Amino acid sequence: GNHAIRQIDLEKDEIVTLAGTGERGMALRWPELGSEAALASVWDLELAGERLFFANAGTHQLGELDLASNQVRSLAGTSGEDIIDGPSMEALLAQPSGLALDGKAGTLYFADSETSSVRALNLKSPSRVDTLVGAGLFDFGAINGPFETARLQHPLGLTWIEGALVVADSYNNRLRVLSFNNRQVNDLGENRFTCADNSCLTVSEPAGVAADGNGRLLLADTNNHRVVEIRRREETLSVWAE
């Protein structure tokens, strides 16, 4: 709502605005100081060294904040709304939301919500955008199978785990897994997992998901007003916070 990127320093107990004026901005065009850059509905962040990537959902773009120089620049998208692949500055996106970084491969994955798609930005030169799953602004569903024919519905969050992407498929009320070894999409199946406490609710409009490296996922279960801990190997669910 403040259209800003902010830093919370837990040791100093202070908050600092790194980028954003507090007003909703227009399309990202040329590099400018973070304090002068008007952003639009910043949705998610990923960090790689001094490079802070962000989803500028309101202008259908991805952006980058250089933490060393405090410069903001456009990373992908023209600000037009569509699902068109190609060189990063010519590609068209549609409300990019969740981000997931595969640092080894130099790839930034993003949930492109309005096209019900998951897409990839190659950060290496020449930088380009390619669609993994998804077909158009009005093509959506709950279809598993090969990347080319699988369908999602308004995904909002995603995370990289064990050679796969786990996607918060918001309007389908479930988590989906994009496996790169066979290029298949499947349900994670969390709604059939064993409930480890007394709050056995069906996941409803999941908005964010994060892997913490300990074999678990943390899921923002929006309509149930809680964060759920998911243990994939044990196939258990429990309330982490509510």
Task: Write a structural description.
The protein is mainly beta and 242 residues long. It contains no helices and 22 strands. The protein has strands at residues 5-9, 14-19, 32-33, 42-48, 51-56, 61-66, 71-76, 86-87, 96-102, 107-112, 117-122, 128-133, 145-146, 155-161, 164-169, 174-179, 184-187, 194-195, 206-211, 216-221, 226-231, 236-241. The strands form five sheets. A five-stranded antiparallel sheet has the order 3-7-6-5-4, with no helix packed on it. The radius of gyration is 18 Å and the shape is globular. The mean pLDDT is 95.
Instruction: Decide which structural class fits the backbone.
Output: mainly beta
Please list the strands of the largest sheet in the order they lie side by side. Answer: 3-7-6-5-4
- β-strand percent reads over 45%
Largest β-sheet summary: 5 strands, antiparallel
The count of strands amounts to 22
C-alpha termini separation: 23 Å
Helix fraction, binned, reads under 10%
Tell me the overall shape. Answer: globular
User: How confident overall, as mean pLDDT?
Assistant: 95
| CA-based gyration radius | 18 Å
Count of discrete alpha- or pi-helical segments spanning 4 or more residues: 0
The H-and-E topology, N to C, reads as EEEEEEEEEEEEEEEEEEEEEE
Unreliably modeled segments = none
